[in-house]
Amino acid sequence: MRWLITGAGGMLGQDIVGELRGRGAEVTGLDHSALDICEPAAVQRAFTAHRPDIVVNCAAYAAVDDAESHEETALRVNGDGPRLLARACAAHGARLVHVSTDYVFSGKGRTTPYPEDHPPAPRTAYGRTKLAGEMAVREELLDASAVVRTAWLYGVHGKNFVRTMMGIEASRPTVDVVDNQTGQPTWTVDVAARIADLGPLIGPDVNGVFHATSSGETTWYELAREVFRLLGADPDRVRPTGTPPTPRPAPRPEYSALAHGRWQELGLPVPRDWRTALHEAVPRIRKESPS
């Protein structure tokens, strides 16, 4: 099977390309400079040139705060772009894996993980535009698509919380980290593996929404402490704090853990515990991250 990865210059996109190549798959990764998913002609050229059997859409407007004042632009990328890809997949007989987010849920008033079929209720422009993309994919390509929601991503490539904490540990005596937001730290390598497993199975009997986050849950504060521990540093250098006095433009979810029932339905492994993944990831990030 031929795979085409959009947004392949990003943190997750790079790991998906690497995972598929490691499995011996034929894969083409296109970053934004090589493919603007909002341009119909560019999408058509990509499908004609690469003739994909499976497309994984990692392209997104992911600036959560900026989206509050640029929602029209975010909607073009997060909503219109996926629709174009889904239509192209329908025309060319390809399957589509579309990456989405926990921000499609409100993140308020909940203490147990959101199942895949829980009604979305986004509170941010980013969440609204990502939900629009989910709906577009399902409208255009119902039986040949999967929406894979993920959250709290970290990895070797790009900016992310774990890499930031690793840098702070080496440069500052203490750090204050919020302790009132709960979620699931998720290594992009694990998401890439789940997507590689799922893609070939997509069809009339395997489609819809899947949650690809690590199992378990924690706060940003506890995650930072665990990173410090793995670096051999004193975790008490991480200090808990509440919401910053100057709130960000987009409210952050108070609770956004996701359940993993669909993987169990397919007999595929449920994503592993966040601590197990982090213990494997931190040494690799230290070794492989660009300086």
TrEMBL record:
Q: Which UniProt keywords apply?
A: NADP, Oxidoreductase
Q: What class of enzyme is it?
A: oxidoreductase
According to the UniProt record, where is the region Disordered? 234-254
Q: EC number(s) for this protein? A: 1.1.1.133
Instruction: List, as start-end ranges, the regions of compositional bias called Pro residues.
Output: 242-252
Tell me where the signal peptide lies.
Answer: none
| The protein's annotated pathway | Carbohydrate biosynthesis; dTDP-L-rhamnose biosynthesis
Q: Name one Pfam family in it.
A: RmlD_sub_bind
Q: Which residues form the RmlD-like substrate binding domain?
A: 1-284
Q: Which InterPro entries does its entry note?
A: dTDP_dehydrorham_reduct, NAD(P)-bd_dom_sf, RmlD-like-bd
Can you name one GO molecular function term for this protein? dTDP-4-dehydrorhamnose reductase activity
Please explain the role this protein plays, according to its UniProt record: Catalyzes the reduction of dTDP-6-deoxy-L-lyxo-4-hexulose to yield dTDP-L-rhamnose.
Query: Which NCBIfam families does the UniProt entry name for this protein?
Result: rmlD (TIGR01214)
Regarding protein family, the annotation reads: Belongs to the dTDP-4-dehydrorhamnose reductase family.
Q: What name has this protein been given in UniProt?
A: dTDP-4-dehydrorhamnose reductase
Which species is this UniProt entry from?
Streptomyces fuscus
